[in-house]
Structure formats: C-alpha cells, structure tokens
C-alpha cells in the first residue's frame, strides 16, 4: 500500500515520539494518542501555531489565503470565529437543506452517468460549499470554480512536499530575483501564487459586485460583507472574511471528496458490509423515502461505517503544528519553530488499539461479549486542540447524507471483466498532505425501479434549492 503507512509501522517500532533534524529543520513525530494529547490538547497554548513554510506559506501565499497555514494569533482567531459562526454544532443545521439537495443531485448524476461517479462526488461537494459560501451556482459539469479548487489543491501538495524546495531549508533564497539563473522555483511560485490569490478573490468579488448590483443571493460571505453602517467592505477591509471563506472553498472540498471516494471503494470491496448497512437503512427508513438527518440517531451502524472510513483512510494522515517557544517533553527539548507532527495514520492503524487494523470492519466500534468496543476515533480524525477542524459538524452531516442516500438507492459493485469475473478494486491510496484513493472503477447500480423513481423525484425537489 502506498503512503505513510509502511513508514508509520516502522515508526511504531521506534517509539512513541521520534526526533530528527533534516533539511535544516527540527522534526518531532508523535506516534501515540497520548503524546498527541499531552502536547496538542493539554499544552495547546504552546502547540497551536503552524510550522514556517517558505514555499507554500510565503511564496505561494497560502499563509494569506488559507486558515490552515496561519500562525497562531489575532488573525487566526478572527478567521476561525467566522468559520465557527457558519458551521458550529447549532449553526450547521441551516446548511442541511443545501447538503441534502446536493446529495440528491449526486444520486441523479449517478443514475445518468454511473461511470463518472468519482467526478460527480467532487462536483457535488464543491457545488454545496460554493453555494453556501458565496451563493455561486456551479455548472453540473466542468465548473471553472471547482476546477480551480482542484488546481490549487495540486499546487498546495507540490508546495508542501518535504525536501522539494531548497528555500524551505535556506529561507534567504527568497531574495533571489525570479529572473536569476537557477531561480526556477521563484517563477513556479509566482504562477502558483497567482492561482492561490485568485481562488479567494474571484468569488469574493462576485459576491461584492452582486451586492452592489442588488442581485446577491444569501451566503455566508454576503451576510458578512456589509459593515455595521451598511457599507459594502472592500477587499482590504474584508481580508479575514476572504481568507475564511476561501478556506471553506479550498479546504472543505478535497477532504470531503477523499472520504466519500474511500466509502465507494470500501463498498465495492465489502458487499457484506454494504448489505448490512442497507438492511439497517431499510428497516428504519423503509422504501418509500430517502433517509434524512432526523434518522441519524436511529442508524448506529452507519455511524460506525463513517468512523471506520475515517480510521481506515485518515484523510489528513499527518497533522503538523508548531510552537513559538522552547518546550520540554519527557526529557527532550522541542525547540521553538520545530515541526511537531501527529502521525494520525500510525495512531489509527496501531494494532495495540485496533485489532487487525488493515481490515475494514465497522463492527470494531460496537463491542461484543468477547471483544470490547475499540476507541471511537471520529473526533481525532479532525485534528487537535485549538487548531482542530472547524468543519467537523459540516463534514459529518455531508458524509451522513451521501453514505445513506447512496446506500438506500444503489448497490456499489466491482466491475466485471470480459468473462464476467468481478474485478475487485485494490485498496490503494495516494498520500500527500491529504490521503485519497488511487483512481479506481466500480459499478453503481440502482437497487430497484422504485428507487430510480424516488431519486428522480428527489432531484426535482432539489432543483429549486
Ligand atoms: C472528512 C472531512 C474532513 C476531515 C477529515 C478534516 C480534517 C481536518 C484536519 C485533520 C485538520 C487539521 C487540524 C489540526 O491542525 O489539528 C483540518 C483543518 C481545517 N479544516 Fe477540516 N476536515 C474535513 C472537512 C472540512 C470541511 C468540510 C471544512 C469546511 C467546510 C473544513 C475546514 C477546515 C479548516 C478551516 C481547517 C483549518 C483549521 C486551523 O488551521 O485552525 N474541513 N481539517
């Protein structure tokens, strides 16, 4: 299997915390939940900033365009306050109708073009976030805003690649002019910076213009863009709003897409788990309607399925924080500015915590007479302390809608070869700053004609939302 997995297993043998110095930087890897909690939760006052990333943060301007890269301080707090006001535990219920409609549209797209399932997942995740954040209606295919988010995601993966950029080890190189021989990195960064900046400014300007024209539709940005005196804020005045909204856009799509694609992969590989989840939905919801958010508490196996997807494939396998002052942990000095990384992959695949961690088994969270339930890892999949993911409630309801709707209406099956033999997709992942399934094929087949009708009705109902 690709990714940090094998490395993580090696690291587990080395110890709970490892320290090393490479690329001119200090690194500390936390391989256990205890170490992660001791530092990121109990000492969150110290460990809530982010490591300095010269290429990604400074040259590509991600430290101005995304909360994820912001140092701890007043700006971060204001951006997090904005995001929290949109998607906290209570506020998130206002997003449910849009999330539900987006999930219905996903079902419709799966019905019309099942082979394109992977793209439909991205289109729907992106459309819902763009609609709520900016009031933008995305095109059902080839939407330029969604394409831009994908492009920025690739750039971010390249810009954060450890050891790739000399300027991360020797920050003084940033002063080399872009035209200087050997300064290709500066030219690459200039292009990347343009995309990173446009991604957050273009949709903001669309909202601003629509407010000035009186054509704006409600959105998180539209609600914040007018100040107390009724003036529409300029880009300078709305700096934190631009960053907060831009992070929803750039950070909320790929993470959700990675989890939903993992779900499709696991369903194609595990028909018995799929049948069990469908049986639970059928017994609670019946066949006359699609599941809704009020069914959530009555579907415990679905909750376990979501948790197992997040455990089996941690979307953010490594969670980096940093510190603004020296600290000592278990006798070791952790210097100011070090990269301190929770190895979430190792924690969630630790055989001492999760029996047969390489098996996909939602039942592990249930507990039986023979085996106690294994620890629920939903929360920690979203990070730690003061930097934990503010999109948690939003992401969890998206996953609930997508998983239950798809299971209610479709069977996800391996495709068959020319002789009719099932081609079970392998559990292969590509890991960068995010971890996602390698492209794979599966068949998405409606469960019955009644379900087809139900989906068509749901798509019509969703068209006005
Ligand atoms: C399955 C879906 C998701 C997973 C697994 C996930 C996971 C994470 C993780 C691990 C972090 C880093 C936390 C840390 O540094 O301790 C993070 C940060 C963040 N996430 Fe998510 N996330 C998901 C979806 C979303 C969504 C849908 C949104 C927005 C709508 C979102 C917004 C953010 C933001 C703004 C941050 C930066 C927080 C900060 O640096 O202070 N995430 N996420």
UniProtKB/TrEMBL annotation:
Xref: Pfam families: p450
Main location per the UniProt record: membrane
Pathway in which this enzyme or protein is active: Secondary metabolite biosynthesis
Binding sites annotated in the UniProt record for heme: 389
CDD domains: CYP64-like (cd11065)
Listed GO CC annotations: membrane
InterPro entries registered for this protein in UniProt: Cyt_P450 (IPR001128), Cyt_P450_CS (IPR017972), Cyt_P450_E_grp-I (IPR002401), Cyt_P450_sf (IPR036396), Cytochrome_P450_fung (IPR050364)
Keywords of the record: Heme, Iron, Membrane, Metal-binding, Monooxygenase, Oxidoreductase, Transmembrane, Transmembrane helix
Subcellular location: Membrane
Record's keyword annotation contains Oxidoreductase: yes
Membrane topology summary: Single-pass membrane protein
Sample GO molecular function, one term: heme binding
Database matches in Gene3D superfamilies: Cytochrome P450
Cofactor(s) demanded: heme
Family named by the database record: Belongs to the cytochrome P450 family.
PANTHER family assigned to the protein according to its UniProt record, in alphabetical order: P450, PUTATIVE (EUROFUNG)-RELATED (PTHR46300:SF7), P450, PUTATIVE (EUROFUNG)-RELATED-RELATED (PTHR46300)
Name of this chain's protein: Cytochrome P450
Species for this entry: Hermanssonia centrifuga
């Amino acid at each position: 299997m690709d990714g940090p997995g094998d490395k993580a297993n090696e690291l587990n043998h080395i110890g709970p915390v490892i320290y090393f110095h490479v690329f001119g930087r200090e690194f500390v890897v936390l391989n256990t939940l205890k170490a992660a909690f001791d530092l990121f939760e109990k000492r969150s006052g110290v460990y809530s900033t982010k490591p300095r990333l010269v290429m990604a943060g400074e040259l590509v301007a991600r430290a101005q365009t995304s909360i994820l890269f912001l140092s701890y301080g007043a700006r971060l707090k204001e951006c997090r306050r904005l995001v929290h006001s949109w998607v906290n535990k209570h506020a998130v219920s206002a997003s449910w109708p849009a999330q539900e409609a987006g999930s219905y549209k996903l079902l419709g797209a799966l019905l019309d073009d099942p082979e394109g399932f992977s793209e439909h997942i991205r289109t729907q995740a992106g459309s819902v976030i763009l609609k709520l954040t900016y009031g933008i209606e995305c095109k059902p295919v080839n939407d330029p805003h969604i394409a831009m988010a994908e492009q920025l995601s690739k750039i971010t993966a390249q810009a954060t690649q450890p050891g790739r950029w000399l300027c991360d080890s020797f920050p003084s190189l940033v002063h080399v002019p872009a035209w200087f021989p050997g300064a290709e990195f500066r030219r690459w960064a200039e292009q990347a910076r343009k995309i990173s900046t446009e991604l957050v400014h273009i949709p903001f300007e669309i909202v601003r213009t629509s407010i000035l024209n009186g054509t704006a539709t409600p959105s998180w940005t539209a609600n914040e863009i007018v100040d107390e005196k009724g003036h529409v804020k300029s880009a300078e005045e709305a700096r934190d709003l631009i960053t907060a909204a831009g992070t929803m856009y750039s950070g909320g799509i790929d993470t959700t897409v990675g989890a939903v694609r993992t779900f499709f992969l696991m369903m194609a590989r595990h028909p018995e788990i799929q049948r069990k989840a469908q049986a639970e939905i059928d017994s609670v919801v019946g066949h006359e309607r699609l599941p809704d958010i009020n069914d959530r508490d009555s579907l415990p196996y679905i909750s376990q399925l979501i948790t197992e997807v997040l455990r089996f494939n941690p979307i953010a396998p490594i969670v980096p924080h940093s510190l603004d002052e020296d600290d000592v942990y278990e006798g070791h000095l952790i210097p100011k500015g070090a990269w301190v990384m929770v190895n979430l992959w190792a924690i969630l695949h630790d055989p001492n915590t999760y029996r047969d961690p390489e098996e996909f088994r939602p039942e592990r969270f249930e507990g039986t007479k023979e085996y106690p339930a294994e620890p629920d890892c939903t929360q920690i999949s979203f990070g730690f302390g003061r930097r934990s993911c503010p999109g948690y409630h939003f992401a969890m309801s998206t996953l609930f809608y997508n998983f239950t709707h798809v299971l209610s209406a479709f069977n996800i099956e391996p495709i068959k070869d020319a002789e009719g033999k099932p081609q079970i997709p392998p559990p292969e992942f590509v890991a960068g700053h995010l971890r996602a399934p390698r492209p794979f094929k599966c068949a998405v087949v409606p469960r019955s004609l009644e379900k087809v009708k139900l989906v068509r009705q749901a798509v019509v109902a969703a068209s006005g939302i």
